[in-house]
Amino acid sequence: MSADRRFIAEAVRLGEAARGRSAPNPNVGCVIVSADGGVVGRGATAAGGRPHAEAAALEQAGRKATGATVYVTLEPCTHQSSRGPACTDLLLKAKPARVVVGMKDPDPRTSGKGIMRLRDAGIDVKVGVGRRAAEESLSGWLTRLKLGRPRITLKLALSIDGKIALPSGESKWITGEDARAHVHLERAHSDMILVGRGTYQADAPRLDVRLPGLEDWSPRRALLTHGEAVDGWEILQSPQDVYRLHDVNDLLVEGGSATATAFLAADLVDRILIYRAPIIVGEGKSSFGYVGLDAIADAHGLWAPSDGRRLGVDRLEVYERVR
User: Fold this and answer.
1) Could you confirm whether 170 is annotated as catalytic?
2) Model's pTM, two decimal places?
């Protein structure tokens, strides 16, 4: 792996750690490397979106940023904001020798302008190193920018035969500890978690993050319901209400069957996480109801597998919506 790819990969990891906390801003990562190859600054978008990753890394690097190489997952912003200076201005002041950018900013306020200003100042700018990894890490923000809503992930814990619960409704626990720990990591990388009124009444879910050191990363909680408001929960009356969540990049939908079906029928799910346990339930509650399909042929080509791995005795299957 070249040095550029190695340090962009580190910047992506920093940005990924900020996912679920940076909204409404993108979860950017930045690494600054001196001419002798040593890392002199690291940064990621802070909670709430400020300071930006470049600002944090430049502050850490100080004067060592002059003549260095700056690795950043997203093109440095150039538009003015009352919340802080533009990152392009900060870089021009710091005078690095090179800036390596994972992907161009699609936001029209910056798109290409930051790159152009840096190049006009004599700074060597390389764009597109590690682009796919940067896009994947920033996918929540990119989805909101493109579609006007968060990236929506549907999580399901299923038996081999696709059941989410016994006929009685009992579902704790279908999966083992490793799978449940992975769910908590997904929660930590989400801005909001949503369940339906039925799940809320049956399980009284906390929907918090219970991983050591990440307890403060518990996201906002939302309830899909036509009923009355509940303290500590935000109310969505229909799946279409996701279009008013302007400060949410990543939304995790955790259930149950009626809620999952509603989001799938509305074609609002971008990613499905299936945690499949090696058990057979037989008669029980199915994962989905009617999602609008009248022919098997219409179901093909809508979803593509993107990942799969063992989690203890269980298996994780990840599917991405083909759009």
Assistant:
1) no
2) 0.90
Residues 6+ apart with CB under 8 A from 68: 32, 33, 34, 35, 40, 61, 96, 97, 98
Cross-strand bridge partners of residue 71: 31, 100
Q: How far apart are CA 66 and CA 70, in angstroms?
A: 10
SS3 225: coil
Catalytic residue from among 16, 54, 75, 254: 54
Question: 37 pLDDT exceeds 70?
Answer: yes
Instruction: Enter the tokens of residue 65.
Output: 């940023």
Q: How far is CA 198 from the centre of its chain?
A: 26
* Structure tokens that stand for 194 in this block: 């949503």
Condensed to tens digits (0 to 9), the pLDDT of residues 56-94 reads 999 999 999 999 999 999 999 998 776 778 999 999 999
Token digits of residue 252: 């995790």
Give, to the nearest 10 degrees, the angle between helix 87-94 and helix 53-61: 20
Q: What is the C-alpha to C-alpha distance for residues 87 and 162, in angstroms, rounded to an integer?
A: 48
